[in-house]
Specification:
It is built from ten helices and eight strands. The chain is mainly α. A hairpin with an 8-residue loop joins strand 4 and strand 5. Helix 2 crosses helix 4. The radius of gyration is 25 Å and the shape is flat.
Length: about 250
């Protein structure tokens, strides 16, 4: 009913005829958020619209035709969902015409400081407080966290930090989940009692860079496909390209 509309009396509570989203978007664009959460029945109906440009409103025997540009978004790995049988293969390839991958916040280290400063000033102004600029130590702590909740989580952490701020200093003690801040000046890993090394963020990045370079060389710098570096690394080609850009890996001339 939400997508395709319904006729009056089509189901209990349908007291009047209603236009669906696809009808309203005819000759325009429709944005489908969290498309990966659709059940199999709805996936089949959406596929028909994408293939044939037609649908039938709920409770109607007539077919409507529309010309709609579809933009879909999801936070799930749809290629993995296809392999697991949770998402239709044909619908995946219908949607995957021009994919745009938005990298998670943990892959955008420079953005963390900019966003944190923006949120800090925003919430401080709303609460009538004055905050000092974020220190290097604060930025290191923020960048060392994995941010599973992405920008929303960062926003909440900064807001809590502003609420508990003292003497104009943002407080991360009770806001940010505990993380170990790397000491970038330390040249080598420190051995623990169990013999395992603690590596700095810079060392982890270097390890990842070296590993990606090994895969690229083994694949003769081919990224996608069964013999590509992405397949060797067990990650989507788009993810590998994003990591290469983040780690400044370029094919040698």
């Amino acid at each position: 009913s939400e997508f395709f509309g319904h006729e009056k009396g089509a189901f209990t509570g349908a007291t009047q005829r209603r236009e669906g989203r696809f009808s309203l978007a005819d000759s325009g664009t429709i944005f489908l958020d969290e498309v990966g959460e659709l059940n199999k029945e709805m996936q089949a109906k959406l596929l028909r619209v994408l293939q044939e440009g037609e649908f039938a409103p709920v409770g109607s025997s007539r077919t409507r035709r529309v010309n709609v540009r579809v933009i879909a978004a999801t936070n799930r790995d749809l290629s993995r969902a296809v392999q697991d049988g949770q998402f239709r293969t044909d619908l995946y390839y219908r949607l995957n015409v021009f994919p745009v991958r938005v990298p998670p916040l943990r892959e955008r280290g420079d953005d963390i400081g900019l966003l944190a400063s923006h949120f800090a000033q925003k919430f401080a102004g709303r609460m009538g407080r004055t905050l000092l600029p974020l220190t290097t130590d604060m930025l290191d702590r923020l960048k060392s966290y994995a941010w599973p909740g992405n920008v929303r989580e960062l926003q909440n952490v900064i807001e809590r930090g502003v609420i508990t701020s003292r003497q104009g200093r943002l407080s991360l003690e009770n806001s940010l989940p505990h993380v170990s801040v790397p000491d970038t000046a330390r040249p080598s890993p420190v051995s623990q009692n169990n013999g395992g090394p603690i590596r700095t963020i810079a060392q982890l990045h270097q390890l990842e860079r070296d590993n990606i370079l090994m895969a690229l060389n083994a694949a003769k710098w081919r990224i996608a496909g069964e013999k590509g570096a992405a397949h060797l690394l067990g990650m989507p080609a788009s993810t590998l390209q994003s990591r290469m850009k983040s780690l400044r890996i370029e094919r040698p001339r």
